[in-house]
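So, does this match?
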Amino acid sequence: MSLEIKVPPVGESITEVVLSRWVKNDGDVVEMDEVIAELESDKATFELTAEQAGTLKIVAAEGDTLAIGAVVCNIEEGGAAPAAKAEEAPKAAVAADKAAAPVAAPAKSGDSYATGTPSPSAGKILAEKGVDAGTVKGTGVDGRITKEDALKAEKASPKAAAPAAAPVATAVAGARAERRQKMSPLRKTVAKRLVAVKNETAMLTTFNEVNMKPIMDLRSKYKDQFKEKYGVGLGFMSFFTKAVCEAAKDFPAVNARIDGEEVVYNDFVDVSIAVSAPKGLVVPIIRNAESMTLAQIEKTVIELATKARDSKLTIEEMTGGTFTITNGGVFGSMMSTPIINSPQSAILGMHNIIERPIAEKGEVVIRPMMYLALSYDHRIIDGRESVGFLVRVKQLLEDPARLLLGI
């Protein structure tokens, strides 16, 4: 009995997926619930498992775009028979070759084939490649040229090698190679959404800078005790996340969204963190970040980043979000204008930390400074709110005690 394995429903908004990789090969014997392939949607990667034990018969190829419910493969019950047939195939081919020998006999010496006479299959190969049968030494009965002899002669023949040398004549100095690669569903979706955001929102960006020395001093002082107690390092993301949550209390429009002709305000903050994954940028979400401690945020960030690297994020872990934080500083970016993650209304961009001279209490001092960028939708957020929000974030980061006291 053969069972069809189809593309399962993977989300309400997903209508098609791409077969990114076969884990098993055609003809392999698979077990019940064993992973046989990987499917990629515009949001995540999913594993396709065998729904019964048996022999795998592949229907769709890697790279194919499949609709939900489309047949990916068949699984036939039992695995011994197909394996036995596979083992018998070479024997059958040899027997067929021998059986076909008496059919074509262009040159005879008595009742035997003359030396240098190719078998039908060997003659076809030699003719296609333009190899003279007289130049091939046969290893078959009475010196007959077998299929294996023809294949070897094809590789050794100067005539067969000639076409491969032709491109040398058109070669030019320097590398000029190019390659085409089909866009992944994730990349296509990102491209469409980013263009839509640019066209459908009134996006502006405001900038500020923050002195990172207070946070860096705090981390240096307590990092060992923090890791010993909570099992995770104390990074910058937890401070920025807490600062965003506190600032959103004073400027709720930054944490809101437009829905038709209404503005939806949230009394919670689900922070999307932009993570660079092998297949592109993904934005997993820290749910209810406003109620989390620094340690809880750090643990969640590590968990989500690890899943992103391993392509194990679920749709639920990437759906929603009320505000986004992106850190281009890890790649060396000094300044950027991040694009809003629709349907959100704002995104905060972190950048690299550079020691720069600044004026402090009438003196020029060297401090580790970071530029911050807040891109926002001007349809819902006014300039006063955007600037006020970013200034509030700056104040909280430059005086970390405020994050603990909530002032």
